[in-house]
Design a protein that fits this description.
The chain has 190 residues and is α+β, with helices and mostly antiparallel strands. It has a 4-stranded antiparallel beta sheet, with helices on one face. Strand 5 and strand 6 form a beta hairpin.
Length: 190
């Protein structure tokens, strides 16, 4: 019975690790510029605020008043130039404008070529996370087989758990594929 409990812990750990990989993949997708404004494009940007690196989301209200515009309203007006500098230094490649009180970011329409590059990039990114999920499966399968070798778990229990891990792997890879398909459609929209 203690072997079964240990297998449950192994399975739950695998599920947690796969879920974490999926979450990181989805988070990376939200940060990609698709030609549409989204607060997730900028909320992770770090700003040097009085010598402390601070996430933008902790310094300002970020809103999307239009489909191709982001409005950043700092709580402390003295931070406007620091925020603007951080946005210009970010990987977004966007130049903000500021009127001394708020910062506006216009999101340009992506060219067809850039859209195709982004789709190719996220395809590669998705494959990296599929590999990550498969690695969790491999590690978990090895742990389960080791438990059998150590005479802690009967063979039928091992087979049942290996099947369970394969099902989890398939589910998480399908979730990655679904997120990828949604993002591809979003990028290719005009």
């Amino acid at each position: 019975m203690s072997g079964e409990r240990s297998l449950n812990v192994i399975i739950e750990d695998a599920k947690r690790r796969m879920n974490k990989s999926l979450g990181v993949f989805e988070s990376e997708l939200t940060r990609l510029r698709t030609g549409r404004a989204s607060t997730s494009l900028v909320d992770h940007i770090k700003v040097d605020y009085f010598g402390t690196t601070t996430p933008l989301s902790q310094l300002a209200t970020i809103s999307v008043p239009e489909t191709r515009a982001i409005l950043i309203q700092p709580w402390d007006v003295s931070a406007v130039s620091d925020i603007e500098k951080a946005i210009m230094q970010s990987e977004l490649g966007i130049n903000p404008t500021n009127d001394g009180k708020v910062i506006r970011i216009s999101i340009p329409i992506l060219t067809e070529e850039r859209r195709r590059e982004l789709v190719k990039h996220i395809g590669k990114l998705a494959e990296e996370y599929r590999i990550s999920i498969r690695q969790v499966r491999k590690d978990t399968n090895n742990e389960i087989k080791q438990a059998e070798k150590d005479q802690k778990v009967p063979e039928d229990e091992v087979k049942r758990n290996l099947t369970k891990i394969q099902g989890l792997t398939d589910d998480f890879i399908n979730k990655i594929n679904e997120a990828l398909n949604i993002k591809e459609k979003e990028i290719m929209e005009f």
